[in-house]
Amino acid sequence: MSVRTRFAPSPTGYLHIGGVRTALFNWLLARQAGGQFILRIDDTDAQRNVAEALQPILDGFRWLGLDWDEGPEIGGPYEPYFQSERLSHYQAAAQQLLDSGHAYRDYSLPAEFAAERETAEKEKRDFVYSRKWMAETSEQAANFAAAGRSFVVRLKMPREGQCQFHDLIRGDVAFDWVREPDHVIQRGDGTCLYHLASVVDDHEYRITHVVRAIEHLSNTPRQIFIAQSLGYELPQYAHIPFVAEPGSKNKLSKRKIEQYLNNKEFKRLYQSGADIAAKVGVIPDPNSFNPVLVDFYRQIGFLPDAIINYLLLLGWSLDDKTENFSREEMLQHFSLDRVVKSEASFDPQKLLTFQGRYMNGLPLKQKAKLCLAFLQRAGLVADPVPCATGERVQQIVAAADDRIVMAGDILQFENFFVPDQQLQYEDKAFQKRLVTPPRAGELINEFNLVIAITPEFTAAALEIELKNFCETQGIELGDIIHALRVALTGSAAGFGMFDTMAILGRASCISRINRALDKLERAS
RNA sequence: GGCUCGUUGGACUUCUGGUGAGGUCGCUGGUUUCUCAAGCCAGACAGGUUGGGUUCGAAUCCCACACGAGCUGCCA
Asked: Distance between CA atoms of A66 and A55, rounded to whole angstroms?
């Protein structure tokens, strides 16, 4: 039998990084066995517009390259794949459980049921429901109904023995049945709840491996009870640890972003994203612009492969040293028995490291193409791209080298794309490199005369020119080069000066130096 | 409170009971360079600062304790 796995997102509009890792493990397991990976939409509780809230999730999966064989937009042999459209299946299952005596109609009022539970809690004993309002015969039901009560369907859970099962990651686990309450599987209005729906769907979709986060481990006994009562064959279970917050073992949560921003590395990641967003002119949506969510990374120019590789290693390893895995290698080596049992903290810095590795492993053309998209979004490059501009972007990307970690980082070099007269100078840099040094203005002015007539305007030729210039002036390279950098780029930091000059070209260099000299004059 | 799971340097991890526990990220220092990155070299930092047991020998196996997390819904 082929391996069939699933991931079941709720249509919330956002794809959580922890969810992606769970999906990844499912995807790998199916793909490496030549099986199927299924996307099921858990929208039993959804009031909102599902289509709208689902789109970002599907987009996220596509962007990450986690393709699904059955599910939304592509259908499949066991349609539909939306739980909201499968109510009749669940109701039939609930009826079957009722008929076989594995479930009962419960006519208690929510307050009555809660009161029993609270009493038990107060007396510090396990809560075992009295089943006082249980109706097993139609007369009992009629009596309760006559009293104006309505019912929900509850599981009639065993009260003896243990639920034992084997988990592919945790090994053998056991729960006492008596501590499993009589869970509700169907509401008064006839709609059904998650546990019933999930079990029915997993069966009807022929799911062979249920791989999901550890928080579902304690839900497993009730699901096993449902499955066995319905005569289903059990899938294999594998409960993977959740992804924890940076620097803690708490579950990573999208809502705690404010708190995470106190973490230095998380903040750094967020800030680099925010800077890019600002330059692209996007006001970040606080709901989705969040490093806990995949969309954040898409917006600022991460590579899907980097994210996937990072997430793979969050809870799984091949050996003591291998870190970089292509998709093929992942598929070849992944196995559930090397998934760790303890939770792993999300480390923004390490994710950034993977991103840098992947970005700089890219051929120049591809890297430049990714960067170009950001320049266009920032309105710095026209669409269609003029040929010369494309060249220039490539030159800049090459010169910037690994200073570009995510594609949006190209915007740190935006000054190469603004007209000379609109170049912005960083005040501090201007002060330190042009105003304060006594000869700065004089030197760049002199050098400006040199570059006006230098025959060859290439990085190599300019290096010789400038070094000669320093010699005749009796100065060190450092005495002029910083002033030059600020004059030409407005910034104190950047890539090599000779590349910078060559990329800007003679005319720009001259006019930018003149502009800096004007500003310098006005400043004094 | 109960149940379940977990516990190695700041983080991710490796370690059929057997030399000073290995790798990656980060950190510190040095070095290179026109700045910033990157690079190179070196360094600090670990087995729950718990108690007991098994053993010639324990991070590894067992028990206890401590700590952490998840679950304990007419949420998923």
From this structure: 15
